[in-house]
Amino acid sequence: MGVAPAWNEGIELGIKFFNSKYFFIPNNDILLKKTTIDKLIDDLQRKNVLLSTAFNVNTGYNFAYDLENEKIPEIEELTEAPDFSCFMIKKETIDKIGMFDEKFWPAYFEDNDYHFRIKIAGFKAIKNNQNLYWHYGSMTIKKNDETRRLSNQNYLNNKAYFIKKWGGCPGNEVFKTPFGE
Q1: What is the CA radius of gyration of the chain?
Q2: Closest CA to 6 of 23, 20, 31
């Protein structure tokens, strides 16, 4: 199905059947601290925040089973550098930004596109260093040859589409409207 279509379908079903106000979208290869979901919701209550992400503590030297013992930093730091491996949006985000662009298929750049759309609309997508999770990293691609092949094959196509849509690579966008129109 692809990443963006799967995220969109989950959101649409949540709205249709449950009148959902929040949409938690984690990768399938993560572990959460007990407080992660509640903290994501709290962060979405901040002014102008439409997307909140947790902070990946997999730094290559610690272990997933240590996640609950991982010390939470004393000083909160919010950065405009969302991590789409573990994120939450609210219904208001869909109302203001729309759905994820399904032309990014099967994966890559759909997250950059959404983040940029949030920024140009004048809102924030934050990552909170006090909200911890563990990401094993690319397990779906590592364990499925066909998915890896399709993702690798379409990576450059998705990058070219992003550049065409926004006039530059992520972080160097030129257009303020899609395709400079």
Answers
A1: 17
A2: 23
**Tokens 């993560």, residue?**
30
Q: Which range of residues forms the domain containing residue 111?
A: 3-137
Q: Between 145-166 and 110-120, two packed helices, what is the crossing angle to 10 degrees?
A: 30
181 domain-assigned: no
C-beta of residue 128 within 8 angstroms of C-beta of residue 86 = no
**pTM, 2 dp:** 0.89
* DSSP bridge partners of 90: 22
Establish if 149 belongs to a structural domain.
no
Question: Residue 22: how many CB atoms within 10 A of its CB?
Answer: 15
Give how many domains the chain has, as a whole number. 1
CB contact set of 5 (below 8 Å; sequence gap of 6+):
102, 105
| Tens-digit pLDDT profile for residues 111-164 | 999 999 999 999 999 999 999 988 776 556 556 677 666 767 788 999 999 999
Region of 180 on the Ramachandran plot (φ > 0 left; ψ -120 to 50 alpha; else beta): left
Nearest of 1, 22, 11 to residue 100 by alpha carbon? 11
Q: What is the CATH number of the domain that holds 9?
A: 3.90.550.10
| Per-residue buried b or exposed e for 73-102, using 16+ beta carbons within 10 Å of the residue's own CB | eeeeebeeebbbbbbbbbeebbeebeebbb
In a domain, 20, yes or no: yes
